[in-house]
Amino acid sequence: MKGERFSFQLLKDGGGGRLGTIITPHGTVSTPAFMPVGSQGSVKALAPADLQEVGTEILLCNAYHLYLRPGIEVVRQGGGLHRFMGWQGPILTDSGGFQIVSMSALQEVEPEGVRFRSHFDGSLHFLTPEKVVQIQEELGADIMMVLDNCSSYPASRNEAERAVALTAQWARQSQGAKGRDGQALFGIVQGGVYSELRKQSAHEIMEIGFDGYAIGGLSLGEEKEVTFEMAQVVTSLLPKDSPRYLMGMGTPEDILAGVRMGVDMFDCVLPTRCARTGLLFTRFGQLNIKHARYNKDTAPIDPACGCYTCRNFSRAYLRHLFLARELLAYRLNAVHNLFYYHSLMRDIRQALSEGTMDQFARAFVSQRGDTTENSRDEGGEIVC
Amino acid sequence: MKGERFSFQLLKDGGGGRLGTIITPHGTVSTPAFMPVGSQGSVKALAPADLQEVGTEILLCNAYHLYLRPGIEVVRQGGGLHRFMGWQGPILTDSGGFQIVSMSALQEVEPEGVRFRSHFDGSLHFLTPEKVVQIQEELGADIMMVLDNCSSYPASRNEAERAVALTAQWARQSQGAKGRDGQALFGIVQGGVYSELRKQSAHEIMEIGFDGYAIGGLSLGEEKEVTFEMAQVVTSLLPKDSPRYLMGMGTPEDILAGVRMGVDMFDCVLPTRCARTGLLFTRFGQLNIKHARYNKDTAPIDPACGCYTCRNFSRAYLRHLFLARELLAYRLNAVHNLFYYHSLMRDIRQALSEGTMDQFARAFVSQRGDTTENSRDEGGEIVC
Hints:
The structure is a homodimer.
Chain A: E1 7-13, E2 18-24, E3 27-31, E4 33-35, H1 48-54, E5 59-62, H2 63-68, H3 72-77, H4 81-85, E6 91-94, H5 97-103, E7 105-110, E8 113-117, E9 124-127, H6 129-139, E10 143-145, H7 157-177, E11 184-189, H8 195-208, E12 212-215, H9 224-235, E13 244-246, H10 252-260, E14 265-267, H11 270-277, E15 279-282, E16 285-288, H12 308-312, H13 315-323, H14 327-354, H15 357-368
Parallel strand pairs in A: 4-14, 5-6, 6-10, 10-11, 11-12, 12-13, 13-14
Antiparallel strand pairs in A: 1-2, 2-3, 7-8, 8-9, 15-16
Helix pairs in contact in A: 1-14, 6-7, 7-8, 8-9, 11-14, 13-14, 14-15
């Protein structure tokens, strides 16, 4: 399927989610799909060979990060992002709309674009929607994201309204700036925690027309209930024949909830970030490898897991590596956590395919129930 | 060859070195051999699968480190060190004689053993030669090292004399303490920078009789000339039918010099430590990946190198990973550096086999000559 233009095939809809295939110039992706995050052109602690082995089909990188470091010209001269980072599968690049707001200093949103200082070296930059498309075209992303205006949380209705308006205006400019065929461009729906604004934003973005639609500006601190209410409002409006992407989420439970409301694509730093704090995902909840109880535990993280880590190493060894701050710890943990996420997606796709999503979800929740080992805060959120 | 008892076959002697095979219960090792260092039960940033791929035949671990953390009982319950760390090839464990002196606090050498405080938690420990053999037997090392008394540098002749005497006494006790068949025990020759003491120590250790002989207490700050003078004094006395191991050395140039004086085994942290500081070994000298000149360099570290890193990634990407402090940097660099070291050993063995060692050494020196990129201090030592 390499070399094909972007397209989306919806194979099955209903029965607790959507089963589909995304076709890109660098290969196909089975949806619902999880995208590991490699913001700077590397999924933390993992080589491309590891990603293949854990079952990654599509990666997320970040145009904002790569623009600042190493710079687009370095990647371009290196043969584009795929060749530069040695990953030959599909890549989605985030525009950095969210990162510019959350990471950079002295950020000012103007109607023409965003002025900000690099969080690396304080250098001054101005990015327009057109420039962000051009950057992603030069990176060679299979899927590009428009520059959106992500309001912070909490945002007043007025602020959220302005963000929706600017997001629509920029989306129009982004669509107009597309200079190459083959690379897909996704629009992003904003609207904060206001249903009416979410609906308005969805309609405006759909009217412009994109290869896929993302739901942005969620999971910024609002109640989980509100997150999913907003996501539901948007997915119920989005066209059935395009992929839907819920940005920056989430826990295994979040993903299952997203799938059930018709989301096709997910990304989150959780599996790789938790790897670096010793929090390991399993069918039975999270396991905190630092815990003294694993001191002499010769079992793998999950005896039923087929990942490289579980096939070769005990909890006792992983605990030792982590406490000794051996670099191998972060990698073995990341291999396991991503393998868990991708296995979850496979199981979800199988349940969708077989029409057994309700049973799957019940079994999932009852297994993951209560062994989360200090990994949740008071609100039930996974902390790592 | 798995499951065999320890033995050494000298295949060829003379013509610029010794060609041999070490047979151990966990497989065979072609000598001259380089042993990557995995003090805490992990070669920094590498998994066992990487070690196999770069050509590692035998690993060095450290009994002192593993005794302190995670503790011998943890490793024993984990099925021994091989199973615990997932490495099925031969393992040599260093006794920790050097580390106790160099790393622990409040260290006191008594005739019965060494009293010291853990460099991790300040806990008080007393290790005797017998206990150190027992530890290594429980770890299941293929090759164990006696507890020696490594005098610091500079040491007066009197101090060095006392260290030699204690080293011989402890070596005798160590040999007497050996309780299991199958695991080899190597003696260690001390004597500081005093030729006469080196000779005396060699004779005393040989008289006790060991499966192999190590030269310890060198490369502690003395002039390189002196290092090799001492090594030469010792190797000229050691029995031909046993392997000789020059501890803790060194640079590619050191290894070549050691081979030429009849050394069979080497270990050094240099390739893995330099990996973490961005210093990469090549046939043409060291390459400092941080250097701005590699910013847009699309070539691999060494176009003729066959390692995973060189087959897949450019200098520009490796520089980016390093500057972005991506964990993958340390691994890709370590893969390359160890591949370089093992390739060097293969080339050396081939030259020995073909009787072309002189030509090999000349070509080696002329290639590596002068492109070391700030990686050497005033004395010409590699700094990383």
